């Protein structure tokens, strides 16, 4: 595994470990102050979340809406400060069981996430960060 992939993998494990532990502060620690991101759950509203206030809003409206949830990082690939993670999410939302596999595209700056967005296919995620072949 390349050094870039090791760093991206470590960052992903830290972020999703914080999500699984319900640790908002730990999750925010991996995000830049000016982070910008979307949520697959909130996509129908066309919401883009911005900054640490956006993370708090997302946490309160999306993350806390799950009855139970567990995130697992299946694979991480990247180059420099761009990466794609394959994620599995198991949980319940409104009493409905969910088992989703999705791809997260992200951009970093100085070891912190500045942007992320969710995609249904690996190719879409790779294209979003300029890593498609």
Plain-language structure description:
- The chain is globular, with a radius of gyration of 14 Å.
- With about 130 residues, it is α+β, with helices and mostly antiparallel strands.
- The two termini are about 20 Å apart.
- A 6-stranded mixed beta sheet has the order 2-1-6-5-4-3, with helices on both faces.
- A hairpin with a 2-residue loop joins strand 3 (about 65-80) and strand 4.
- It has one domain (about 5-130): Nuclear Transport Factor 2, Chain: A.
- The protein has helices spanning about 5-20, 25-30, 50-60, 120-130; strands at about 30-40, 50, 65-80, 80-95, 95-110, 110-120.
- The protein has 4 helices and 6 strands.
Q: Features of this protein?
A:
Nuclear Transport Factor 2, Chain: A; 133 residues; alpha+beta; six-stranded mixed beta sheet
Helix and strand arrangement:
Layout: H1 3-21, H2 24-28, E1 31-38, E2 48-50, H3 51-61, E3 66-79, E4 82-93, E5 96-109, E6 112-119, H4 122-128
Parallel strand pairs: 1-6
Antiparallel strand pairs: 1-2, 3-4, 4-5, 5-6
Shape: globular
Portion in beta strands:
35-45%
CATH structural fold name? Nuclear Transport Factor 2, Chain: A
Query: What Rg, in angstroms, do the CA atoms define?
Result: 14 Å
* Residue windows where pLDDT falls under 50 for at least 5 positions: none
Give the CA-CA distance, first to last residue: 19 Å
Order of helices and strands: HHEEHEEEEH
- The share of residues in helices is 25-40%
Trace the largest sheet across and list its strands: 2-1-6-5-4-3
How many separate domains? 1
The CATH architecture assignment turns out to be Roll
What's the level 1 CATH class?
Answer: Alpha Beta
Classify the secondary structure makeup into a structural class.
Answer: alpha+beta
- Provide a count of the helices: 4
Major β-sheet, in short? 6 strands, mixed
Average residue pLDDT? 89
Number of strands: 6
